[in-house]
Amino acid sequence: MDTERDADELIAEGAAAPVEGWGFAWLAGRATEERPPWGYARLVAARMATVRAALDIDTGGGEVLAEVPAPPPLLVATEAWPPNVPVARRTLGRIGASVVQVADRPPLPFRDASFDLVVSRHPVDTWWDEIARVLRPGGGYLSQQIGAGTVRELSEAILGPLPPPASRHPEQAVAAAEAAGLTVVDLRTATLRTVFHDVGAVVWFLRKVIWTVPGFTVDRYRAELRRLHERIRAEGPFVAHAQRFLIEARRP
What range does the domain containing 76 cover? Predict the structure, then answer.
């Protein structure tokens, strides 16, 4: 815990560290987050072992997909953020997966009924109509998603009081899946304790998880970051709560 280090030193450290990919190893010893009880990576591995063609949307740096012990014969991942694409290609090359750079809007660059399985961990947006289109009849979609108001305490520490969240509610995802013609077969929710031990970890997190404080830059929010540093020194680690939900759907 870096409670005795200068705020600006910690802020500069968090601002300089690389954020490419979707791993969070840089936060080791500086921040922690509880894991959802359902074990997303384990569920993905189990589903992958039973199909011949699968797609991972918003793969990040490919970190989760690379853990699949028995990948299907055809395995494709998509990523829209350009710095992540070469990271994902390096990570996923060893399991024979192809990485396709895509736009941040539909459509997906695949033919109708191309995949038995589509998965996505923490998608930026879920294109339900496109997922239904690229799934084969009987195929499934499995996704762990960020829920409404996740780490809201951190957002409000920087931005001040916020209105109730209007999106990312699990019931909205269910309605959208059903509107696209899919049948929801599983829905689970979890609230996870997230702990930041120093303001450098906060800066790195806000640079990486960009929707927490939209438009975040250190220069814009330096005063708020310094206040948060003093709060951590006085009160101990800053605690927020992440919301997650798991949704699984099938194309009839």
Answer: 7-250
Give per-residue pLDDT as tens, 121-131: 999 899 999 99
Per the CB < 8 A criterion, the answer to whether 115 and 251 are in contact is no
Residue 1 lies in a domain: no
Pick from 232, 204, 146, 151: which is nearest to 28 by CA?
204
Type of residue found at 76: V
Contact by Cβ (8 Å): 127, 108: yes
Task: Report how many domains make up the chain.
Answer: 1
E-strand stretches of the chain: 31-33, 53-56, 74-79, 98-101, 115-121, 135-146, 183-196, 238-250
Q: Answer whether residue 21 shows pLDDT above 90.
A: no
- For the entire predicted model, the pTM comes to 0.89
**The domain spanning residue 224 has which CATH number?**
3.40.50.150
